[in-house]
Amino acid sequence: MLIKRLRGWEIKESQVTPEAVFLNRRQALLGAAGIGLAGMMPHTGQAQVAGMAGELYPAKRNAAFEAGRPLTEEKVATTYNNFYEFGTTKRISDTAQSLNLKPWDVQIDGLVEKPITLDAEELIRKMPLEERIYRFRCVEAWAMTVPWSGFPVKALVDFAKPKNDAKYLRMETFMRPKEARGQRQDWYPWPYVEGLSMAEATNDLAFISTGVYGKPIPKQMGAPLRLATPWKYGFKSVKSIVRFTFTDKQPKSFWEDLGPDEYGFWANVNPAVPHPRWSQATEEIIGTGNRIPTVIYNGYGEHVAGLYKDMEGLGRKLFM
Ligand code: MTE
């Protein structure tokens, strides 16, 4: 992801997956050039570590959410990651093991009846866990299909009891530079933040993942709580959440802060709206080398298109 500057970037779209080419806000060159997907596929598998509340998995599958595509191999999905807190390459699954999951306080605050802080495991045990297979589409034009376990964001909203003036749900990742060495790079606007409108957050599809492949979610995929919004580009799916804040102001997200002309708040998948530096018309299924056409809202239009019907004036901002 990110901000244009390197000439190495100007290689043919077919040869590259847009990758971490990064300039800080002070214009210093910091990143490395993009590397083609095939060259980046991991050679070693990262075993999933024991996570929290392991006996809750596998959760019962909700048959309403099937992907219509083969599942991505577990070893592929769990070793090909974006998690800038642990580095800017895709191979952070080992480095991410330095994240300490216990204790894991989760704060629920802002425009709610009663702010609360509770342990992630306690929260997970209160929520209705189920398994859903979702397609996932990264803004970098790669895709995967994984079985998430977790609970609808709506269940968390009901638990939090937001006030009527709450318009957005802001979600924030941990801030622990001792455990996450990427966070020592202070030109990034840490902590990672993302947000949804309340209408999006309470849509059936919006999901908090606590597990994947029938086990607790591994650290590199965002343990213990990670957002899954399959109709949006993957950067919306904030990992390792420590805080849920209900607010009347549209949150400014991590990537929006870094590159507002390239990454926006809405970030809905649309093959007809190219990223400023590459096409979104097709996507590469990781682990297969196959490239397939991208579908608007990543194929979830029947669930979510209605959310945006009065927002057409936003134009391409809805899709970036
Ligand atoms: N969350 C945090 N905290 N930090 C990140 O760097 N990267 C995002 C998203 N959530 C990111 C994050 C991006 S760009 C993508 S594509 C997905 O996580 C990748 O999820 P995966 O590693 O499970 O494939």
Question: What does this molecule look like?
Answer:
This protein has 320 residues and is of the alpha+beta class. The chain has a single domain (53-312), classed as Alpha-Beta Complex (Sulfite Oxidase, Chain A, domain 2). The protein contains seven helices and twelve strands. It has helices at 37-40, 74-77, 120-126, 153-160, 198-201, 254-258, 301-304; strands spanning 105-110, 116-119, 130-137, 142-152, 168-173, 193-197, 207-212, 215-216, 226-228, 241-247, 282-285, 291-293. Strands 3, 4, 7, 8, 9, 11 and 12 form a seven-stranded mixed beta sheet that branches. Strand 3 (130-137) and strand 4 (142-152) form a beta hairpin. The two termini are 13 Å apart. Bound molecules: ligand MTE. The site of ligand MTE has 16 residues, from loops.
| Biggest sheet statistics | 7 strands, mixed
- State the low-pLDDT regions, or none: 4-49
Cα(first) to Cα(last) distance is 13 Å
If you compute it from the alpha carbons, what radius of gyration comes out, rounded to the nearest whole angstrom? 18 Å
β-sheet strand percentage: 15-25%
Question: Which ligands accompany this protein?
Answer: ligand MTE
Give, in order, the helices and strands.
HHEEHEEHEEHEEEEHEEH
- The assigned structural class equals alpha+beta
Question: What's the helical proportion of residues?
Answer: 10-25%
CATH superfamily caption: Oxidoreductase, molybdopterin-binding domain
Helix count, per DSSP?
Answer: 7
| Net shape | globular
CATH class: Alpha Beta
Q: Architecture in CATH? A: Alpha-Beta Complex
**Average of pLDDT:** 88
What is the CATH topology assignment? Sulfite Oxidase, Chain A, domain 2
